[in-house]
Specification:
This protein has 284 residues and is an alpha+beta fold. The protein contains four helices and twelve strands; from the N terminus they run αααβββββββαβββββ. Strand 3 and strand 4 form a beta hairpin.
């Protein structure tokens, strides 16, 4: 006959037996401690290593949890730092843009001081021809702003060019370095007349040419070249550039001057357009 613990032994008897054993062990421990020494020794050998293992596992888990906590905290700090860096970069970009705009506005303001007699309006370049130089380009001001054909255009410290076409909201500008540009100018304190010719080829070496200068003219390197009063399209007294070299022509009647323009034609963003024009409009 097979013995079945679940059916043949009632739980209440099992509970009673365990209670009696516990009471006996408590009494023996109180009155006969030496009798339980083998039991304590056995349980110590079994429980102490187990307890040490449990403690080691607990310490390992605690250490790993602490590492995971540190990693999580570092990730949160890293995300916060990235957000701050992004904000600082945006602020820096905004400040740089504002500084650039301020410099451009200061340039236009300086032009007002240099040429106070002329009414002007500021404009921004929005399209450039295929050349590496700003020899032909479009600005965002046109007929609606009083910008008409033959309005003179300024930049940096002097003459940039002239409006050749004007539309309601924009206009086309030809720079003085363009191959089709031709200006009557004056050189030096004596106001020696010359013709200033644009040339993209010579601009590769940093200059344009002042030609048809009288061989006896008193001009030297460093002389300022300005627009002449006899010009029928350019207003008088606007700086074109400065003489950097002078050479006699082969005809022995004239000489030629190399002129460094007062405008940087490699990078132009904002310009100032003079709204007044010469009364007579014609081809020089």
């Amino acid at each position: 006959m097979k013995f079945n613990w679940n059916k043949d032994i009632s739980p209440k008897y099992l509970y009673l037996a365990l209670s009696v054993i516990c009471i006996v062990l408590i009494v023996l421990s109180a009155f006969m401690p030496d009798a339980l020494r083998p039991v304590r020794s056995l349980t110590g050998k079994l429980i102490v290593p187990l307890q040490k293992g449990v403690n080691n596992i607990g310490e390992y888990v605690d250490e790993k949890l602490q590492v995971f906590g540190d990693i999580k905290e570092l990730k949160e700090e890293n995300a916060e730092l990235k957000a701050r860096i992004s904000e600082y970069q945006k602020e820096l970009s905004q400040n740089q843009a504002e500084l650039t705009e301020l410099a451009e506005l200061r340039m236009l303001y300086n032009l007002d001081d240099l040429y106070p007699d002329y009414e002007k309006t500021g404009a921004r370049v929005f399209s450039v021809s295929g050349s590496k130089w700003f020899n032909e380009f479009y600005i965002d001001k046109g007929l609606n702003d009083g910008v008409y054909e033959n309005c003179n255009v300024l930049c940096d410290n002097g003459l940039l060019g002239i409006v050749t076409e004007s539309y309601p909201d924009y206009a086309k500008v030809r720079a003085i370095i363009d191959d089709h540009s031709y200006i009557t100018g004056e050189i030096g304190v004596d106001g020696t007349i010359c013709n200033v010719e644009g040339s993209l080829q010579s601009m590769e070496n940093g200059y344009i040419l002042g030609v048809d200068i009288d061989k006896n003219a008193n001009i030297v390197q460093g002389d300022r070249v300005i627009t002449s009063n006899v010009s029928d399209r350019f207003l008088y007294g606007i700086t074109i550039g400065y003489v950097i070299d002078i050479s006699n022509d082969s005809n022995n009647l004239t000489k030629t001057a190399k002129i460094a323009p007062s405008v940087d034609f490699s990078e132009i963003k904002d310009v100032s357009v003079i709204l007044e024009r010469k009364q007579e409009i014609g081809q020089q």
